[in-house]
# Entry
Amino acid sequence: MKDIVILGIETSCDETSIAIVKNGKEVFTNIINSQIEIHKVYGGVVPEIASRSHISVISQVLEEALKEAEMGLTAIDAVAVTYGPGLVGALLVGINFAKALAFSINRPLIAVNHIEGHISANYIAHKTLEPPFITLVVSGGHTHLVLLKDYGSYEVIGMTRDDAAGEAFDKVARSIGLGYPGGPLIDQISRQGNKEAIQFPRVTLEKDSLDFSFSGLKSSVLNYQNNLKMKNGAINVADVAASFQEAVVDVLVSKTLDAAKRFGIKTVAMAGGVASNTRLRELMGEKCQKNDIRFLYPPGILCTDNGAMIACAGYYKFLKSEFADYSLNAEPNLRFEHFAGGHQ
Ligand code: KG4
Ligand code: ZN
# Structure
């Protein structure tokens, strides 16, 4: 079969990324221009600034990608782009750029759901991975347990009812005086803390539910701090961080293992920014090993937002001729289960 080369564009939040990937697995280039430094001073992503920043760098990112891949645009078979969920202005920059590019080189346009992109990063990192498997998608905006029945066929079997895991990390980090983004900082400082110091609640919801809820945990951390403040006590930041992290990780791991058992699945993968978390990787690894389950996650660079994961997801759509037309619009609240058509 002829090799298929997809150019993937990702601009849903604060990374402008363009990648070129062959056959959904071989990454020729994956240029990521992160805006973290720009947003840091505001303590979070400022949507308007994100859109402007995408506009100002995206052409340059394309140029860099082509240069690194040592390719001309004629080598590209299709242009894949994230169309949701994400920040509307940020998404529109990528979508319009993708449309113009696809039109100018007369190649098809492919619309990719950002969450499907995150999951697909595992196909790049693990060449032998094939459905069925379960993926825990944990990022700044999403916490989903997804059963991958086949390429492009999904069932969302659990999701957060309030905050996403990464959002909880970021909010708690801010409240204990760490910077932005909070996830990596909590991960880091937790190594010096005692994870058993404070017993924060593990919210598991109804019996048998595979859904998550993290807003109560976030409030518990705030209450803990306020109580100490009233008593004029100082918090031990490393202990709070480690105990909070343990509570999140505990619930994520136990629900993922429950899901694998319930559906009789022997492979578990992780995706999204929080999948870089050291303690999550460690505990999930231990529990999977005990239960004879294969456990996979992408390297850090493919966990956070990147164009390669979009190109990979785009490849499987290309094979099914699932193309978008020029009426493609940003869908900031795009729901995964609707997109996938797998949720009953
Ligand atoms: O997937 P991603 O880059 O963007 C979204 O689609 O949201 O994920 C970013 C999220 C942020 O909330 C960040 O704090 C979190 O991933 N994150 C981490 C770690 N690295 C990134 N959370 C916990 N531990 C980490 N090591
Ligand atoms: Zn993401």
Notes: The radius of gyration is 20 Å. Residues 114, 118, 139, 272, 305 surround zinc ion (ligand 2) (CB under 6 Å).
